[in-house]
Amino acid sequence: MTLLSSSLSPSEATRFRSAIAYLQAGQSASALRIARDLIAQAPRAADAWQLLGMCLADTRMPGEAERAFERALALAPGNATVLRNYATSFARLGKGLRADTLYESAVPVLRKALALAPDLASTWVDLGVALRMSGRIDEALTAYRRAESLLDPDSAGSLAVTDAITGVLADSGRTDEALVHAQQLVARHPRMTFAHETLSRLLREHGAEQTPDEDPFGSFLAAASAQPDNHELQLGLARMLLSAERADEALHVLDRLRGALDAADPLLDWFTADALDMLHMPDRAARLYAAADRSGLGKMPAFLNAYARHAFRTGTFDLAEALAGRAIGVEPHNQEAWAHRGTAWRLAGDAREDWLCDYDRLVAYVEVPPPDGYPDASIFLDALTEALARLHGASRAPISQSVRGGTQTAGQLFGRDNEVIQATERATRAAVETWLAALPKDLHHPFLGRRMSSVRWAGSWSVRLKASGRHSNHIHPQGWASSAFHVSVPSGVRDANSPARDGWLQFGAPLESLGLDLSPRRMIRPAPGYLALFPSYMWHGTVPFDAPESRLTIAFDMQPNEKAD
Questions:
Q1: What's the mean pLDDT in 470-476?
Q2: In this predicted structure, what is the pLDDT of residue 495?
Q3: In what order do the strands lie in the sheet with 455-471?
């Protein structure tokens, strides 16, 4: 990096270059120490101030970084090098925050970068992602449209942005536009796997009203049949079929793909084993899981969790516990692996199950007072029910979700420009923080050891269950803590004397497909205006109910907000 002027002495210039080398080597702390020393020695050197700004941005201190860059510009007004480093430092910082799912923190940083350099297409994409994941749908669409205008229309990046725009249109309830958008992308680029995946998901959730007799995977199946050489497309189709529990079709695709390859492929072994497991062919599945485990997949938590599910189904509980332990060793906060470990401990009669789950202490069910502006709970919940009803436009539940006999809203719920949803977000956050304050800290516990005074959202949505609807037993892999806020509940579900406990929330009964005869450890009768809070690794689901009214909830996942402490 060339110095702006001779305002640094030769020895200071040498230290400046050393700091740049440290930054490039990822040793930002060492670079920051040099930068602070240079500021003390040469407080009127623009080079020293822009170096400090770069170091502070690299260490995720955007406020201090902005002040340092602005000081550099005051000393070197309009300097192109300072402006470029200012913009790229903030763009890189914003990308890192976005990648770490710190979306709300990423937004102002990315906006600052774009104010300095409006033509950074990749930064517009990052901003679109951060806004979409923060629930700011209209702003996200604007950002993606700007990125699309800056990219080569036929580039891979542009196609990915076009696909993201389809998703944002669906999030905003513009389903017809989203479907047309997805169909056009598939027609223009029939070899693009993600385009077929998006179209199939949309048709699965929304196609029943428009084309009730059409297979939502029909276009994907036809494309795979017409492109036998497109291995990525074949694999994507197999994954989607498995997610939709169409294992026989997935196995056909995978066998065809395996036959086309000259050598064994561990990924194909894994997916084929999953299909065989679903089709109740455990011996063949076991051989393929073991073969895949000997490959590099044996260090991947997602594979280890899949293998553990097979181990539970075949009664090899020691293997399931060992696989869970390996997954935790690679990824200590993996929620599914902790769920598997707790289940294995329960099957073994190990007291550590109670230490991990402690259903009486770690599951809370608390009343959420009506937010300011709503005189009582009924007025608040009626307004919220009306707002949520407008967002439930799908006819079927998403693929790979726990909803059975109901629908789930698209995109992020919290962050939307809606008064009652914003009020709900504030009210539930207050309830969460009260709950957190009452929990003990246990540094050795996978849940309590990460407790902070506040949280950040890792996902939020609403579910509406119809008669006979339920949540299958599941966990929340993206969370640390999870929730269920009951907005409306059928009258029969509210009956405390119901022996069947229809519609009740249950904890501790594992995923049904594991084939384990384990009853719930705790059950809760839902009531409107009440919020359930629990660790994300805890198995939970609902009992089916038979009533004409719907059961309406809001759910959200949380991660500890380390900045708050």
A1: 87
A2: 67
A3: 364-367, 530-535, 481-488, 551-560, 455-471, 403-408
Q: How far apart are CA 38 and CA 52, in angstroms?
A: 9
- Which residue stretches of 348-476 are H helix? 352-357, 359-362, 377-389, 419-438
| Average pLDDT taken over every residue of the chain | 92
Rounded CA separation 404/360 (Å): 27
The number of angstroms, rounded, from the C-alpha of 446 to the middle of its chain's C-alpha atoms is 19
Span 156-200, pLDDT tens digits: 899 999 999 999 999 998 999 999 999 999 999 999 999 999 999
Query: What pLDDT does residue 261 have?
Result: 79
Tokens describing residue 260: 């086309």
Looking at 1.20.1560.10, 3.40.50.2000, 2.60.120.620, 3.30.450.20, the CATH number of the domain 360-564 comes to: 2.60.120.620
| Confidence label for 208 from pLDDT (cuts 50, 70 and 90) | low
Q: To the nearest whole percent, how much of the chain has pLDDT over 70?
A: 95
Nearby residues of 181 by Cβ (< 8 Å), 6 or more positions away: 162, 165, 166, 169
pLDDT > 90? residue 433? yes
Specify which residues 460 forms β-bridges with: 556
**Distance, CA of 339 to CA of 320 (rounded, Å):** 11
Query: Which pLDDT score is estimated for 413?
Result: 95
Nearest to 515 by CA among 280, 358, 197, 285: 280
Mind listing the pLDDT tens digit for each residue in 31-64? 999 999 999 999 999 999 999 999 999 999 999 9
Residue 12 φ/ψ, nearest 5 degrees: -65, -40
Burial zone of 241 (CB within 10 Å; 0-12 exposed, 13-18 middle, 19+ buried):
buried
**How does 389-410 read in b/e, with b if 16+ C-beta sit within 10 Å?**
eebbbbebbbbeebbbbbbbbb
- The one-letter amino acid code at 86 reads Y
Distance from the Cα of residue 100 to its chain's centroid: 11
Where on the phi/psi map is residue 219: left (φ > 0), alpha (ψ -120 to 50), or beta? alpha
Phi, then psi, of 32 in degrees rounded to 5: -65, -40
What is the C-alpha separation between 349 and 156, in angstroms, rounded? 53
Q: Is 231 exposed, middle or buried (0-12, 13-18, 19+ CB in 10 A)?
A: middle
Q: What is the pLDDT of residue 295?
A: 92
DSSP structural state of residue 518: -
Give the Cα separation of 510 and 521 in Å (integer).
10
CA-to-CA distance for 327 and 319, rounded, in angstroms?
12
Q: Is the dihedral of CA 149, 150, 155, 157 positive or negative?
A: negative
Q: Where in the chain is the domain with CATH 2.60.120.620?
A: 360-564
Least confident window among 100-104, 240-244, 255-259: 255-259
Q: What is the DSSP letter of 316?
A: -
Which pair of structure tokens corresponds to residue 462? Answer: 């609403």
Q: CA 218 to CA 226: how far, in whole Å?
A: 12
Q: Is 369 left (phi over 0), alpha (psi -120 to 50) or beta?
A: beta
What is the pLDDT at residue 473? Answer: 92
